[in-house]
Write a structure and sequence with these properties.
The complex is a heterodimer of chains A (253) and B (440). Chain A is α/β, with parallel strands linked by helices and 253 residues long. In chain A, 36% of the residues lie in helices and 26% in strands. Chain B has 440 residues and is of the alpha/beta class. Classes of the chains: A alpha/beta (253), B alpha/beta (440). At the A-B interface, helix 2 and helix 3 of A face helix 7 and helix 8 of B.
């Protein structure tokens, strides 16, 4: 079995001091594939995303997260990111006084050795290419990070950052929520541009809608803090037609 | 806490020796003697004095210090030469101890006076006499009385009616030896005139302790506009206290920025009295206390006229076992209707040992006004920190980004790019951003 995968193994987690939300999650995303993670509200999808990224609000009570053969449980969020993990936030925060360009340059340089910082020309080329991919205006890079952004612009910024930072694995946490049809197309186009043999992704969504644009290789269904079903992309359509009730019944959740 | 105690060096003999050494006119000698009496009549503030609550008073003690005299050498410190080389100022004056060690002015606008107070007394006595002690005087505090009685030199600026001075003028105040230092700036901007002025306090570290007591008097006549920067970046062996007060005529506008970065302890009293209808006062403040520094700021927006506008925004970060105190007051007189007055203080706590006290206050005696005040103090928002780290930024870099981002709201309103760049550099050096050095 190849090491080139992101593996979640029997993962249990809770909000620090709170009730357990993840109750033994098992999931594998091989590099080069895009998987969808679906499930009803409250099933633990967003918690899983944040726990993988290392959100300090949560504590892991069991299991493991293995990135290409190496456990990342003990790593800080920044170390995980430098190992090639990326979380597209459901609710990206506003950071006043920091332009998108400066922020992304710091983020890229954090991945490089001191003294080997990215050249200004190279950086702007890369950034402009990503901006273009998302049909955005160049002036966006001088705006402060998410300050005064609409919900849709924030989601687009998450994908812009993904394109610039080129992670090996990305978790997209409900990137489709709050997007109109046009924005959904643009964002999907961005994700599809990132697809390739060196990119794995877990796309978290409630709806088939997004998966019409980002066609997944596999679909996982989460209910009650566990992955209860894996299947081909057709599973997403089945869920869309039948809702989640039949799965709940099938697994006795 | 130990109360402040008096200093035998502050006496009539000291006043008389200044008067005779400079052959001062009788009116000024009388003012000094009166100021000394006012000084003697006022008790030292204690921690029970309302305006001085939460101030670490003993850090402003000048007991046992002599009045500062001539500097050890009269060279211009390199840090100031570098600042001057990097500035676009039309005129610069450098005070070191009681000496003027540099004075360069190539002011193209006619009739502008920009010189030290001694020279101004000789060449423009009537102008100085008309305004000196009008705005900052011995009746206000123990420290303004001390300054009013014993100042030796300072900076004088006069901009005549309708003249716009295009480029900034600036004064650097520095020292290389300890004692009681006294600085005074008197700025008079006449009817419909315009000026940008920067007062900067800075030094290379030296062994003795310096207590520096500064007075800044600003007179803005009808329609006058002034951008004023007070930038305090003393070495850590200095305690700094400054009353910076402006009187504004009809439709006058003041944009001031008070920056506190250096010294062991610093207190800035930033005050505007709006005397003419339609006058506007914007008072910004920025501070970053670390390694045990104590910064204390007081703002006063006194609306003594109808239709005035004032806005205070003071923001600061506090790290290590340091302390910042902000106390602000808005006073609206009974007849000052249609006043707009706003006051905001925001603080970022970067350490559990860091401490902030913030006391916004209002005294409104008019009934048709818009006033608001607000204050927040808290650590770096955890969700912001996590977000930055999730992009790979190391924790210390994330902190740099969040602190500079927090202070950006003030910096973005400073319309002098050179000043903004310098302040940002000093802040980054204090934060320990790799590759940034503020030469000290």
């Amino acid at each position: 079995m190849s090491d080139k995968q992101l593996e979640i193994r029997g993962l249990r987690a809770r909000i620090v001091g709170g009730e357990e939300i993840l109750k033994g999650v098992d999931l594998v995303v091989p590099r080069g594939e895009v998987h969808a993670l679906m499930g009803p509200n409250g099933s633990g999808k967003s918690t899983l995303a944040k726990v993988i990224a290392g959100d300090p609000q949560y504590e892991v009570t069991g299991g493991d997260i293995i990135l290409e053969g190496q456990s990342i449980l003990e790593m800080e969020p920044d170390e995980r990111a430098r190992e090639g993990l990326y979380l597209a936030f459901q609710y990206p925060v506003e950071v006043p006084g920091v332009s998108i360009a400066n922020f992304l340059r710091l983020a890229l340089n954090a991945r490089r050795e001191e003294g080997d910082e990215i050249g200004v020309m190279e950086f702007y080329k890369k950034l402009q290419r990503a901006v273009k991919e998302l049909n955005w205006d160049d002036s966006i890079i001088e705006r402060n990070l998410h300050e005064g952004f609409s919900g849709g612009e924030k989601k687009r910024s998450e994908i812009l950052q993904l394109l610039v930072l080129e992670p090996r694995y990305a978790i997209l946490d409900e990137t489709d929520s709050g997007l109109d049809v046009d924005a959904l197309k643009v964002v999907s186009q961005g994700v599809n541009a990132a697809r390739g043999p060196n990119f794995g992704a877990l796309v978290i969504t409630h709806y088939q809608r997004l998966l019409n644009h980002i066609v997944p290789d596999r679909v996982h269904v989460m209910v009650g803090g566990r992955v209860v079903r894996d299947g081909p992309k057709e599973l997403a359509m089945e869920l869309d037609q039948k809702g989640y009730e039949w799965i709940r019944e099938a697994v006795g959740a | 806490m130990a109360a402040l105690t008096d200093n035998p060096a502050v006496d009539l003999g000291a006043v008389e020796s200044i008067v005779s050494a400079y052959g001062e006119p009788a009116w000024l000698a009388d003012e000094r003697r009166a100021a000394l009496r006012a000084y003697a009549d006022q008790p030292f503030p204690t921690e029970k004095t309302e305006e001085w609550r939460y101030t670490q008073l003993k850090r402003f003690s000048f007991a046992g210090l002599e009045l500062a005299k001539a500097p050890k050498d009269e060279s211009v410190p390199e840090r100031i030469s570098m600042r001057i080389a990097d500035s676009d100022a039309e005129g610069v004056i450098v005070h070191k101890g009681n000496k003027v060690v540099m004075h360069k002015a190539a002011i193209k606008e006619a009739g502008v006076v920009f010189t030290d107070l001694r020279t101004a007394l000789r060449d423009h006595e009537a102008l100085v006499r008309e305004h000196l002690y009008d705005v900052v005087n011995a009746r206000q505090t123990k420290f303004t009385a001390l300054n009013s009685a014993l100042w030796e030199n300072g900076t004088f600026v006069y901009v005549p009616r309708d003249v716009e001075v295009e480029l900034p003028l600036g004064a650097f105040t520095t020292a290389d030896s300890g004692g009681i230092g006294l600085g005074r700036t008197l700025i008079v901007v006449d009817v419909n005139a315009r000026l940008t002025f920067i007062d900067e306090y800075t030094s290379e570290p030296f062994d003795e302790r310096l207590f520096f007591d500064a007075a800044t008097e600003i007179v803005l006549k009808d329609g006058a506009k002034l951008r004023y920067v007070s930038l305090q970046n003393w070495s850590r062996n200095v305690a700094h206290i400054n009353k910076l007060r402006a009187h504004l005529g009809r439709d006058a506008r003041l944009e001031s920025v008070t920056v506190s970065l250096g010294a062991d302890a610093a207190r800035a009293e930033v005050e505007s009295r709006l005397e003419g209808p339609g006058s506007e006062s914007e008072m910004l403040g920025l501070y970053f206390a670390d390694e045990g520094q104590h910064f204390n700021q007081f703002t006063l927006q006194h609306h003594a006229t109808p239709r005035g506008f004032s806005d205070v925004l003071f923001k600061g970060a506090v790290r290590d076992a340091s302390q910042a105190v902000y106390s602000g007051m808005i006073i609206v007189d009974p007849h000052a209707q249609k006043t707009d007055a706003y006051q905001t203080n925001r603080n970022l706590l970067l350490d559990e040992a860091a401490e902030v006290v913030s006391i916004p206050q209002l005294e409104i005696a008019a009934n048709d006004v818009k006033c608001s005040h607000g204050s927040t103090t808290g650590p770096v928002p955890e969700d912001q920190r996590f977000y930055l780290m999730s992009r790979g930024l190391r924790p210390e870099v994330a902190e740099h980004v969040l602190v500079t981002g927090f202070l950006y709201e003030v910096m973005s309103r400073v319309t002098l790019p050179k000043v903004a760049e310098y302040v940002e550099r000093v802040v980054q050096a204090k934060l320990g951003v790799p590759g940034v050095k503020e030469k000290l």
